[in-house]
Amino acid sequence: MPNQGMDDDSFKAFIEQLKRYVRERLVPAEPQVEALDRVPDDILNEMRAMGLFGISIPETYGGAGMNVSQCMATVKEVCWAAPAYRSIMGINTGMFASALLKSGTEAQRQTWLPATAAGEIACFGLTEPGSGSDSAGLQTTAVRDGDHYVLNGTKRYITNAPFAHVALIMARTNKENLPKNSHISAFIMPMKSAGVSVGKPDSKMGQVGAQIADIVMQDVRVPTANLLGGDEGQGFATAMQALNNGRMSIAAVSTGYAKRILDSALRYATEREAFGTPIANFQLIQAMLADSEAEIYAAECMLVDVARRADAGENIITKAAAAKMFASEMCGRVADRCVQIHGGAGYLAEYNAERFFRDSRIYRIYEGTTQIMQLVIAKQMLRDFEH
């Protein structure tokens, strides 16, 4: 059965309210986010009150009960503003909620999803100093000790780690690399657990306010009840399923931010004059604007299609990877054109163009690099061809 989500009228009203909130509240607060390097507490509480941390979580567990299509539309709208706003809510609504809904036990959903929907911030621990997409290189271990598992290891570049209340940690429950990555299990780990420490937030090229840091685990005892799904060996499959959601989300993020970037470029082109006329009247400027509009439209169409397929229960591995790959590369091109249209001003911090350029670069890396997306797509194509 397709996920029906919110009724159309309620969702339309929500989006209209959100659109006003983003433009009238979040965009003007961007300098404050940059100064603090975090989303201010008053705005966080407003976002919680609007239900933004629970958009993908069913009403049964305190969420808004949106379907995938509605969630992606919401994310796209939030991303008209600085990336930090989406980042602080994105793990809750994306990978964490997706993993619990698809793979968690009912007791785990009842325990963790209401708090997640209410805005207790989550993070997702897969990447390590020596491994990212390479599951065979994963070194974090989870050793059974009575009614607990003991976790040891380090996770790297973990979004929201400095703010998080809970983490979903991928750990090795078998020393050997087993078929289908069944040596990896997933654990729900409260960040206040003894033995958990968070490193200093990393300095980054862009995305100010969206903090990442290492999570270090030293003999952290996690109850067996926190083994996701109650079975060992399901962690990698859980991570990959959650990444489908994450990849769609990055496609939505890239598309929403590209729309903001193009709006800024268009605004500048109509206001800046050269040779006695707005530069928007020059055909080569128009070509950059037109190419950006066409590519954004293509990304929007891909996003709508893959979200619709996800709601229908289809296997979206290939299409989620394709949408993420295209949209993230598209956003980078739009940001580059925005700098070019601004000319010398585009290189100055006084204007938003240089921030857009820095912010958008990570989208080609998040949730699997463009090159990993190419491998995912090609491998699936070859499997399909053989059958």
SSE diagram, text form:
Blueprint: H1 8-26, H2 30-36, H3 41-49, H4 68-78, H5 83-103, H6 106-118, E1 122-125, E2 141-145, E3 148-159, E4 166-172, E5 184-190, E6 196-198, E7 212-223, H7 235-271, E8 273-274, E9 277-278, H8 283-311, H9 317-342, H10 353-360, H11 370-386
Parallel strand pairs: 1-4
Antiparallel strand pairs: 2-3, 3-7, 4-5, 6-7, 8-9
* Largest beta-sheet details: 4 strands, antiparallel
Low-pLDDT stretches are none
Q: Note the total helix count.
A: 11
Mean pLDDT: 94
CATH architecture assignment name of the largest domain: Up-down Bundle
Helix content: 40-55%
Task: Name the overall outline.
Answer: globular
**CATH fold topology of the largest domain:** Butyryl-CoA Dehydrogenase, subunit A, domain 3
Give the number of DSSP strands.
9
Q: Mind telling me the CATH superfamily name of the largest domain?
A: Butyryl-CoA Dehydrogenase, subunit A, domain 3
Strand content: 5-15%
Order of helices and strands: HHHHHHEEEEEEEHEEHHHH
The CATH first-level class of the largest domain comes to Mainly Alpha
Number of domains as seen in the coordinates: 3
Overview in brief:
With 387 residues, the protein is α+β, with helices and mostly antiparallel strands. The chain folds into 3 domains: 8-120, Butyryl-Coa Dehydrogenase, subunit A, domain 1 (Orthogonal Bundle), CATH 1.10.540.10; 123-232, Butyryl-CoA Dehydrogenase, subunit A, domain 2; 237-386, Butyryl-CoA Dehydrogenase, subunit A, domain 3.
